[in-house]
Records
---
Amino acid sequence: MNTDSDTIAAIATAGSEGCISIVRLSGPDALNITEKISRSAKKPTGATPNTVLYAHIVGSDGKDIDEVLLLILRAPKSYTCEEMVEIQGHGGRISAARIMRRCLDAGARPAEPGEFTKRAFLNGRLDLLQAEAVQDLVKAQSEAAANMALEQLEGGLSTAFNEIYDALIHLLADLEATLDFSEEQLLLPVYDEIKTLNILIMNKIERLLKTWPQGHILREGASIAIIGRPNVGKSTLLNRLLDKERAIVSPIPGTTRDTIEESILLHGIPLRLTDTAGMRTTECHVEREGIERTRKTIQQADLILHVLDASQPLDDEMQAFWRKIQQNKLLYVVNKTDIKKYNHSENLPKNRTYEGSLLNNEDVIRLKNCIYETITSEFNLPDQPHAVISERHRDLLQLAQRSLKQADQLMKEQIEEKTIFISTHVRDAIEQIGKITGRVYYEELLDQLFAGFCIGK
Amino acid sequence: MNTDSDTIAAIATAGSEGCISIVRLSGPDALNITEKISRSAKKPTGATPNTVLYAHIVGSDGKDIDEVLLLILRAPKSYTCEEMVEIQGHGGRISAARIMRRCLDAGARPAEPGEFTKRAFLNGRLDLLQAEAVQDLVKAQSEAAANMALEQLEGGLSTAFNEIYDALIHLLADLEATLDFSEEQLLLPVYDEIKTLNILIMNKIERLLKTWPQGHILREGASIAIIGRPNVGKSTLLNRLLDKERAIVSPIPGTTRDTIEESILLHGIPLRLTDTAGMRTTECHVEREGIERTRKTIQQADLILHVLDASQPLDDEMQAFWRKIQQNKLLYVVNKTDIKKYNHSENLPKNRTYEGSLLNNEDVIRLKNCIYETITSEFNLPDQPHAVISERHRDLLQLAQRSLKQADQLMKEQIEEKTIFISTHVRDAIEQIGKITGRVYYEELLDQLFAGFCIGK
């Protein structure tokens, strides 16, 4: 079924609220199908590329279904590089569904998720990195994330990977050239050049790998766990963070677990705040399940806010428990300094400790800035994100890195017979990098990648 | 602020799910604003009408915000009859919001609800009936409702009202002509003609008024109350109706009250089902509040399903209570005929009684058909809705009807001096009909009418 000769159709606007609905068609029959189901002064099949026609979509009973505009986008100058029509109707669920059904009646088939973008990729309009950026742009929850996606869409990240890919191809050619030399002819300087090039490539990969935390924060948001004894002000902290910056109020779908999770945008950075409800039970006699849940939250957290009460002594048992968790991710929030009795900060790392009262507005603003700065420095977030990799890229880059390290090891041994094995490792690296940009692909990889797209994109 | 010389902008696609977002601009500066915030090979201000340009929207920092298509629609051949641009971006909440903000930066102001359609009306592209149809089409919950809206958008209803309006103008001219006659010249035949014309008009109004229940059912859905003693099968009835026809699963926003309300589409007719939870308390010792709530539901219902249990005797006290409610809206559902012990149907009106077991699939299908037939015959729903009025039209028509009846009364008295009063009544009727089509309007009427529209329409 899923061949390029099919003409695909999808409703490309959201459910019920929109004032305009768009049904998108792409494929060789896009114009013919539109002509079959519409009436207009000018025929779609005769229309100039990039024109808008006023038309009516006609039902199977010959009666009008909707008054529409037809955007005629002809191959190869369309999103998919194929013949495309966008049918823009008055909107409404029913109307869009009827237009869609008419398209199917007339020979189109329903598009799979991301299939328009997949065709744009297969037809050479976008590489895989750019294709991924399209969906990142749709899903972006912050301006920084949108900037990052657009940078990627415009080829910012592609350039970095293409450079690596081309250098690897060059390396492989040089390597294979050495096979033609007889043993006595083999020049060590050539081999040294190859080794140096490999190291250069590994450095580039290393630099790209370091951008992953940024990408993670901007794409998925920073995960913040709020921990601490009962009544120290954990819920107050959550509410104070939520109230003023309630930019994204809905919990991120699919991520909500038993614990309370809320999302906010803090100075443009998406944060997912989790109140570790499991640790609320008192006296540290926390049930196993509670501990397990909290431990998981803490493990997955990018930053842990440990709330302490300045009016209460430190709880040794609790302290011992916390000490087991990753200290490098901790920010100590010493609350209730307005009724302060104990000087907890003496025992805490200075650059990791904040003191204040969550009831005081200025203190809350200071805390927010403190959280913001901790995240930006921890994740090395630049003002303008540039060439930032995703989890998929990281995984493939790490595989490439491993192959090149193995190649490097063999090169150090300088046994010429190993050239053939070195080549194999370099080829492996080329394949991994190729899978990132799409120079190397197979159906399964594409299926997996585009499955996360929305239908109509 | 709200003048036609403003250029207005709005996001015309829904919230977050869409794969394409549209920001719509209308007004004299639409093209200039677009040019200020975009870069493209061809300039928007120089573009041919009805063309699509490939462009990038540029942020205030000079960096790209989104890759877009620009639909250039020039006055007067656009939806609003003004200069219009539709900026079609990759979608996503952030991206749409940023494009919108750039439009505002460049001199547009945010559009009010329905303001694009209001401009289409003010510029003579649509009359008020057609303008209302645009929103009806967006909101349509069934194909029949969408058909009705499109019929109205294409002028089906306008024709009916324009005929009445024109006839009234004719009537008024004839009436005022009689004022020029001296008393002795006044010809009774002329006066008879006027009377006859008035009656013809009143008949037309009467016919239109009769279409209101159809419009009500198709626009808002039929409201169905389920009443009866506990354990007779009310919840089963609700569930059986919901399960198979769960076409619209979400409750209609704003209408959900304390009682459970669910919406379904039954053979294309939207039904809002209300389970009268308040009457669930036993032995008829229903609390005042429960009775009040149920009474309200019953009062507003278009059809009441009274569920009875064939395995239990009729409850006299409860029967006495039900007897007080409108019997003409009742459909008796005698359930549990599989364990039947009593023959309730003997005491119930035959054409208003259904017998069966809600556990039996065939019986449920029969019940659905029974409900469908009762509604279609009660509300006189035709296969293809045609020229169906709304509540606003009904209210104005009733005022016009009252004026014409008063005119008719005065005409019967045949006292010539009354001609001037008759004219006044006819003028009143003309104003009411004019307000329906928009031949007569004032700012307040438009504000009220368009307030119900979505922003961007």
---
Amino acid sequence: MTEVATARRSRITPEREAELYEAVLELLREVGYDALTMDAVAARTRSSKATLYRQWGGKAELVAKAVRHGKPGSSAGEVDTGTLRGDLHALTLRSDDCEMEQNSALMRGLAMAVHGNPDLLKAFKEHLVEPEMAEFGRVLQRAVGRGEIRADSPAMSFVPHMMIGAFAARTMLDEQPPTQAFLLSYIDAVVLPALGAPTT
Amino acid sequence: MTEVATARRSRITPEREAELYEAVLELLREVGYDALTMDAVAARTRSSKATLYRQWGGKAELVAKAVRHGKPGSSAGEVDTGTLRGDLHALTLRSDDCEMEQNSALMRGLAMAVHGNPDLLKAFKEHLVEPEMAEFGRVLQRAVGRGEIRADSPAMSFVPHMMIGAFAARTMLDEQPPTQAFLLSYIDAVVLPALGAPTT
């Protein structure tokens, strides 16, 4: 970034920046990446397109930044209930149904765009997928330590696919967003038995 | 449809129609629904936009028709190997890796569009999801009949989510399309144990 650009950038307050990113995420959920236009962002945030382009360069950069900004990460602190079932349920219950619906819409809105946009894919993975997966990893390691599951369980490496997959498949198959109730039954019926872990 | 439109419609041969639908599916896989334009379809199929609009009315109708036309259905005949594992493997091996990559790209290209386009959602479900799911249902029922799995296994109703979910999550998590090898290990590591079925 040139010095001029840096100087210009500082004209936007962090609050205003956060507002802009939230508006971009809203639009992504509503219409998806391809249909999201800088005109729509400008209209919704009552800013000028010139400002948006000067500040972010273009749609791809703006969207990647918004994704990076959007997720607060695991701010709720470590989950540790003493059982794998308890931990997986607790992780699920940290997002209410409204947040799950929003995340599911965001995933859908980005699914096509992350292909062929490496920067956006990186932002998507680093900020939406990996923090979640790291938490599942910690919870599974503790279950291995307690002897609830075997370290060499073949299902272990598929836990992310089971969880993210159920999340993604729910909307596609049942025409409704994933909910806490759906994911809790899925954990009990599929994830725990696949891992050979106690289901009660 | 008016009589005039019917008469006009008949000017296109079934071969030409099939060619057009295949081009639409190709474009859907490459750029997704939102970025697919009638201009691009016209260019790729060397037809005029006027013809496309006269014939199909618009993009939504053309894409829904292409989806309905695309999948040949379960032309490969009933699968019945005598075990659940054998049947699930056989169903997986009916699509080669290239077809799986194509189906995964098509799913991605349609994921956003099916929301808010009921006709497209209907075409997507009836022609891409349900025939596959009906086959899984038949295979599971036979496994219940043979006593391999219990009829009241809680995992039973989640088999579509496990399979479609793994398919969808593979690209998102591992940046590679689902392959036969991936799905066969997933069936052995996740689907069969979740159902309480023999894994060898």
